[in-house]
Write a structure and sequence with these properties.
about 325 residues; 16 strands; alpha/beta; 2 domains; 7-stranded mixed β-sheet; Rossmann fold; single chain; 5-stranded mixed β-sheet
Length: about 325
């Protein structure tokens, strides 16, 4: 059986993703998902004219030769690339985690998706400030949240809320514990010419913030719930595998009648079937129903002619470990 080297695998991945590239090189996409496309030490994302190479090797040195191979080869294959940033996952070096520029001089500062600009700060933390796997969700938001009031919890840099503003939502409130993250969302507003209402960017602990909304009797047509895998504060714990139902139940009193909860769970080791079990617990009282699932793009799942690996857990009925469910809610008394 012939040996397939890394650049051959990446070449195959590029060809499969040709329809995701745009002429102006403003888009964002996962260029190569090594976990499912043949080399689990390497993942490559593209943000406009910057490639971000993630070294997942453990120890990190075991992936350095592969990283060097990618950094040397990729600009010859995609000559419009202006820079390559390398992020190292398994290290205690925060700078290496956040990213080291290995090619070029300037990192991309924005991407354009479905006609909307999203600001970037690619070295802000070990992630890259915009989660590309929720692209299809942003498209759904654009199509469905016009004239709605929206609360985006665990907003991070606010891309889902920015999509809601672009959709024509009546009001969008973005909440996160980290002001720096929300400031990226404000930059996205500026890029699109959207007004910035400071009161709609709220820096607060999730548990405290929800209680404030309850006391004010504020209600929303749509609440987006996209928590981190695990987070603990003095006021509560988020654990996607253990207490996700508690998080969802906490936002239910904020829902308008015939409201929508967008429930996102990206716990890698939580199977799709297990996630459905969690959601069915929420639905047991008859006031919440599962309306639909939103798939993740094939650049994350791999294509029929590029995929050689299997997911750690079976995500079915979802197509990826980032599991997105749209829930419909009713209020008592209606």
């Amino acid at each position: 059986m012939p040996v397939v080297n890394l650049t051959d695998r990446i070449e195959r991945a590029i060809v499969a993703r040709e329809n995701l590239f745009d002429e102006r090189h403003q888009a964002g996409l996962r260029l190569f998902n090594g976990f499912l496309e043949g080399e689990p030490k390497i993942v490559i994302d593209v943000y406009a004219t910057t490639a971000v190479v993630h070294n997942y090797a453990e120890p990190a040195k075991a992936g350095e030769a592969l990283v060097e191979q990618v950094v040397a080869w990729l600009p010859t294959r995609l000559p419009w690339l202006e820079s390559i940033l390398v992020k190292t996952r398994n290290t205690d070096d925060e700078t290496a985690q956040n990213g080291v520029l290995r090619y070029g001089e300037k990192l991309a500062s924005r991407v354009r998706e479905h006609g909307v600009w999203y600001a970037l700060d690619l070295t802000m933390n070990r992630d890259s400030s915009l989660y590309l796997d929720t692209r299809n969700l942003r498209e759904w938001i654009l199509a469905n949240l016009a004239d709605k009031t929206v609360l985006n919890t665990f907003a991070y840099t606010g891309s889902l809320g920015v999509a809601a503003v672009a959709a024509g939502a009546k009001r969008v409130v973005q909440t996160d514990r980290n002001r720096r993250f929300l400031n990226v969302g404000k930059t996205s507003h500026t890029l699109n010419g959207f007004p910035i209402n400071k009161a709609d960017f709220q820096t607060e602990d999730f548990w405290l913030q929800i209680n404030k909304f309850k006391r004010k009797e504020e209600l929303f047509d749509c609440v987006i719930v996209d928590p981190p895998m695990f987070a603990a504060t003095a006021h509560g714990v988020v654990d996607l595998a253990q207490n996700y139902t508690k998080v969802l139940n906490r936002v239910r009193p904020l829902m308008e009648h015939n409201g929508t909860i967008i429930a996102i769970n990206n716990a890698l080791f939580l199977s799709g079937a297990e996630y459905i079990e969690l959601l069915e617990k929420i639905c047991a009282d008859g006031y919440v129903t599962i309306d639909q699932f939103i798939d993740i793009g094939q650049d994350f799942t791999g294509y029929a002619d590029t995929r050689v690996g299997k997911a750690v857990t079976n995500p079915a009925p979802f197509n990826h470990s980032t599991k997105i469910a749209v829930l419909k809610t009713r209020r008592r008394g209606f």
